[in-house]
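User: I'm writing a short methods note and want a consistent example. For L-ascorbate metabolism protein UlaG (Beta-lactamase superfamily), I'll paste the sequence; you return only the structure tokens, no commentary, since I'll be parsing the reply automatically.
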Amino acid sequence: MKRALPIATLCTLLFFNCKNTTEKVVDMASETTTEMHEKTTSEPIEIIPINHATMILANEDTVFYIDPVGGPEAFSDQKKPDYILITDIHGDHFDPKTLQGMSLDSTVLIVPQAVNEKLPELKVKSVIVMNNGENKDFESFAIQAIAMYNLREEALKFHEKGRGNGYVLTLDGQRIYISGDTEDIPEMRQLKDIDMAFVCMNLPYTMTVESAASAVLDFKPKKVYPYHYRGTDGMSDVDTFKALINKENSDIEVVQLEWYE
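Assistant:
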């Protein structure tokens, strides 16, 4: 079970155990590793990192699953999702068997058309297809679909423009960017007023830490969370990612969560 990490300035440290292991959150600002569980009442959005590209975002009223994969057992101790956002068709973002093993009768799926075409038969509340650049307003939040694609010639085969979606989720007055699989594309660099950004960096599929840091320095989120950083040759250097950003802009907080066991 992954424990929830509310998004806010760290105000309280608590120690806890989960399945005989302790979740570690690395405070990149101080470059130390501390066992912690952040509590706050001022900003009740929570992040629960599951693995790689998979996470849960939640406030008191609404639970979002982002790219749920890993089997239904990965979510057995979590609240049921009100909404599921899927970014792309690749197996680290979209797993039909995981979806089929979940109880989704009250869940809305938000997906690009390429994912919609591959969905298995599911008992869900509804499926909403969003294309790059589209906006959708809901009762208590809004979603914008952002392009995600490769730029390098040797990587164009991985993610073509228009197939997958990144997302900007506006919830409780905060704008949360989820990059999906992408490089440092103009659509990312031109983002505005982002409070939290989840930015990928893994080769050969997405981008280098240098490209990711360069893009972050352009759109200047208040906080950036490196995620999706396991590539074919191991983990990307998220310490270098932080150093590159804070050398140029110390106001951007780089937050490292436990994405990999």
